[in-house]
């Protein structure tokens, strides 16, 4: 599995608008229930099927007087699928991702706890060929993309211990202050991509959800209905499958995309 930036698509303006207005994006039509018996392997670009935006918490802008309030964190989740609109098959590895933005401006930023909540009949599928990816975009000194797997304080998780409601998604090297949380502040973005597989057919009546906890007692659940068909799939080798990175749809385009 290969990850690559995703340039110049409409979702850039779409995400920016949602962060500034707290508008909810409508989910697209679900993928078709069955995939073709064969798909080209090299350079297969898998699109995302994303759910709606979720706003999580309200916060007062730092030192604002009179007080100005804004959404603390907002984001969405989705899963990758064979193009153009086919669903993954049972047993096939695909990815779920969480994309978060931080429009709020608390004085101390946010320590964001994250958990992945998979429905019955789904499991994580991390391997050497299908690792976890984690990236952030920070606004200062300029908008630039950071591969958190190479960061001395972070690193992408490789295992997922049980959390409060789901699988804890904690930075490999401890994260913010070695707390297991992901540090964010105003203008920060975060995208985490985790490989998963279905062990039974998924008809869209269950969802992949993420538990996002940016402050004490503040919790939100971005989610997306999940689809996986039960066909026997004879797809070609997919070692050159490409994942799009939604952070690289932001406008202006982050450096490093």
Automatic annotation (TrEMBL):
It comes from Dokdonella fugitiva. The keyword Signal applies. Keywords: Signal. Residues 1-25 form the signal peptide. It comes from the Bacteria. This is Secreted protein.
